Amino acid sequence: MIYSQTTFEDRVNAGVQGKIDILINKEDTLNAAARELFDKVDLRSAIRRSVLSPNLFNGIFPYLCPTDLKGYAIIDLPAQAKRQDGEWDLTTPEEFHRLNGSKKSMVAIDDYNGVRTLLLDSEVDSYSIVVSELDSLTSNGTWALFGDAETLAADDSDFVKGNGSIKWNISSAGGTTAGIQSSDVNSIDISDYLGGTSAFFVWVKINSATNLTNYILRFGNDSSNYYSKTVTTQADGTAFVAGWNLLKFDVSSLTETGSVTDTAIDYFVIYMTKTAGKVSESDYAFDWLVLKKGVVNYVKYYSKYPWQTSAGSYIENSTTTTDLLNADTDEFDLCVKQGIVNARREIGFSETEIESSEKDLEKAIKNYEMKNPSQVKTIITDYYVY
Predict the structure, then answer these.
(1) Three-state SS for 169?
(2) Is 115 a member of any domain?
(3) Which residue segment(s) compose the domain that 72 sits in?
(4) What is the pTM of this model?
(5) Cβ of 88: how many Cβ atoms within 10 Å?
(6) Does one domain contain both 288 and 144?
(7) CB 45 within 8 A of CB 57
(8) CA 206 to CA 343: how far, in whole Å?
(9) Which of 44, 150, 233, 290 could form a disulfide with 171, with the two C-beta atoms 3.0–4.6 Å apart?
């Protein structure tokens, strides 16, 4: 990529007979032209491959969606090493949730409240240890109150997995923590899971995210010897919301208190950090605490960002003359033709001149697409699954 904002401007200026300074804001016009072309054509140079976050886990569905994903332009989800999923099928969020767990290698992009989430149902071989289903107060250990939690009870009517969840309320005490704990979970050996791609997952139900700072997981041998890990977002990188949230605690960069024996973990605490003013609230819960070992995968897709900074960061709009277009030679020429069309319209060229540049652009796009077919997956849906 050797085509800077300056080069782009010079070429478009030549196509409008040196009248580019007539534009109200030539940088805005050039950015709009680049975005428009990247939207209508799947360019080779717009293909990106980024590491999937979090790593790929069997039974874990929400993942961080690339911020620059163009529409639903997913190409593939290749493994870094050994591929265990076959062909990925792109479907709708509705069908994905309807078929959860019954059809593997599915991918969907879920849009809601201005948030995008990547949904994956993988058949990858993901080793796991279920610490507790958290279906009852004696679900693999005796679960008790921690911090400002009160009114601990099992709930068989509102849960995510298994047969129930453990619900609790926040008292009026005015402390800064609230959650549950157990010191007699069946001992597990986590030595093979430390570091790398492993993580604990747990579902948490939140009544209100207001004045909620983070969630912390402690695991170890007792209240004097444990690891701790803090998270401030859901597993897919989005903010905490009212309702059920899936949390991921990476088993790396842990904070150790005392000295932990990794082969005999039987002490767990899951709790929120909150402000002292977060009091007297009901309808909080935990469900399904599990430790999983993930697999490193990539997301391959078409980016909607036409530019890179000189430091290599992808950006949607160019703000300086040294920014570079994500375009090879033939793709740069398409950008120029799109820029000429947009600039001629804004400047007020004759209809004949504008139509001529539009036909030139259309012909060039068709020629490019004949040589470079799109690799985007087609959305597949079934009205009924037999």
Answers:
(1) strand
(2) yes
(3) 49-124+297-302
(4) 0.86
(5) 19
(6) yes
(7) no
(8) 51
(9) 150
